[in-house]
Amino acid sequence: MRQIGFLKDEELDSKSVNNSSSSAIIPCDFTHAVIIGETGCGKTTAMIYPNLLDRIKRGHGVFIIDYKGCEHLRVKALAKQAGRLKDVVCVGSSIDTPINFIMDMKTKDFKQSLTASMKERDNSFWSEFGSNIATNTFEVLRAISLYHKIIEYKDRYLDFNFYIKIKSLVRTYHANFATIVDLSQDIERMRVFMDKLKEVIYTRDKLKRHDKIMYDELKIDTMIFIKKIRAFLNSVNRFKKSEGSDDRVFSDFRNYSMMMTPFLSMMNNPSLNSKEGSIASMLKQSKIVVFNASSCDKGALNLILASFLPSLTNRVSDTNKINISVFLDEAAKLLNEDSELEESILRENKVELIISFQNPYLMKLAIGEIRYEALFGNLTNRYFMKNKVECKVAGRDIECSGLDKFECIDNNSDKIKLDPMFIDTVKEDEAQMEYESINNIHQRVLGRVFENCIIKQDSELIERGRVKLMNLKNKKIQEKPLSMQFIKEHLDIEWFELL
Fold this sequence. Notes:
Strand content: 5-15%
CATH class of the largest domain: Alpha Beta
Oligomer: single chain
């Protein structure tokens, strides 16, 4: 039995501790893998951790989901053992590395993910209606951001008023998910946004005579930008103020707001709504990305997957591709029938999926039987652990109910006694302390360094402007206030409210 740190006797299963125990390291051939086994069978300790450590040692970019908010500690301990703690990036909680998770998303993936989540609540006209408006908002915000970058140092070719209006838009309406959801929750905010865009079009139309000083490329960029604005305004035209009763208008907007309600937690998470930074770019730089999903529902998690997986499918021509491993534990909690894992085309892009779930029944319930069979067919390396639910491969029954803990049946129908990897809390704490030092977290979050202490994450406490610190020497836990600068930058509180 491999171990990191000291293990308590009660943690050990005597059945698995013998000289014949071995590792089931998944072949690193990017043909994907699946691990099936019930809760308590040893999936995580005997299969996930050993393969996670193997991929980290190989220098892969790694993505893993932390459902309970504590798995990041084990990932850091494994990364420290492999000498790659500096490559760990945690995202998803208030004190983690901020990203703009929709930055690399393609329009079709954004719309598909939203539609799938909305259909779970209301499989009707309103799910399509809501996803269309949100997608048009996504596109116009991205167009504003892109056009601003294009004209930033070309103001001499533009009318001053037009240029200033674009600068104002970019400052007020960031191209992130928070802006999209925020505009969906208040019709007056939406109308103000619509009016500002109409002013841009009006100013542009009035100044077409200045086109003679524009060079052709800038003219084309400007026309494309205006076209995006017009498309958005057409999609939300029903929300404009009418001369008669607004009852129908408000009713339509309420339905749109309701469709966007599942994403409020993501809107209120500043770490997901920065100006820059994306999961895809981090993975391409060989980072070990741990996503904190403790406050996310299935719809939000699907959106996160769609934010980076499709971006990893266009690397075929890249000569220096970083190998990437995506671990999706408890996949039945994560996926639905509309989830697109791109499993059939990830292999040639040097991206592997390592998926685990409890049993086929739960997975079929989540994604549908047809989608399950298609997905399962693309997961070449298969490992079956103790499971009371029948498993079949090509019509052949796999007898899993008689397996012991830390045992599995592999592709060759061989029964393997696995060597589990338990990670001691002392090693977790040591890795966390070093991680906080590497990333200057104390200074950034608390305004000063606390020696021999680590931060114990508590999202509710952080929202109240405080954080828990644990002293590693005496194990005492104290609450400390967040720094004023951190609160101002990351907790969406206006500076004057702090005075």
